[in-house]
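Field reference: "sequence" (input) and "structure" (output). Example, ABC transporter substrate-binding protein:
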Amino acid sequence: MKTFMRHLARTALVFSLTSAAAAAQYPDRPVRVIVPFAAGGGADIVARQVFQGVSQALGQPFVIENRGGAGGIIGTDAVAKAAPDGYTLLLGQSGPNAINPSVYNKLPYDARRDFAPVTQLTRYPYVIAVKKSLPPNTLAELIALAQAKPGTLSLSTAGHGSSSHLAVELFKRQAKIDVIAVAYKGAGPALLDVVAGNVDMTFGDAASASKQAHAGAVKALAVTGARRSPLLPEVPTVQEAGVAGYEATAWHAVLAPRGTPPEVIATLNDAIRKVLEDPALKAKLAQDGIETVGSSPKEFETALLAEIDKWRQVVEQANIKLD
């Protein structure tokens, strides 16, 4: 028995030293970064811009692999089930990682337990934009109109159960209004129907909504983040406009399979945060209304768990389900 235990201890020591050596040499081959959405979308663009810099910093290719489908579930699950060695990473987003756990009764992955947080890359707000012919010119006036005529104003979202839909439901509750949420297949069509006057308002992405606002096609009344958008510096936040405590943003992040060595996580975190400090990258993302973050693994884990709980409450109160 003693001989067996000594052998077991030696085996464990060898395994530990081998793992530590591998982590110290990381990365020594190309790394896959799975984006759980189609090529050309916002998540894909952010991933390519960030990991181009990470590839240069760490001396190995970080290859973007688009694996879309099922609202980000397919690609996210692929990373959850990948080897925890740092050679498969996830470009996470608020939908698959913070909202899906509540809007789906059954997911093939556990958003709380199957991933090791690396860092939050970005955050970006929505813009509350209304059609030109709608009388309100401020958010306070819009809320007053909605309260005077409950259940009559229409509000387009990027889809049932989407990040923008939940931002709307949170706004409805905190502003104490009743509006009709209309689900579209994407933020683009949702905004264009407001431009056309077919829908009263929308929660649009800052880049698209600001362009339409500057062109005079819609009126931008507020942004949903904690700070004003540089694309619309004259437009107040929802909190500034009178809805205390309201904040709703979407985000991108990097996660690895749970069990990835801490040394690997630290290497990735350090490299990514340095890339996010690049003024050229910051300026490029800011053109789309996106703010860089760059958090520690612990900071992002705390923020992620808080987001999951926040949106769970909204989903339960609004009774939103996708299966």
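DSSP finds eleven helices and ten strands in the chain.
The CA atoms of residues 265 and 276 lie 16 Å apart.
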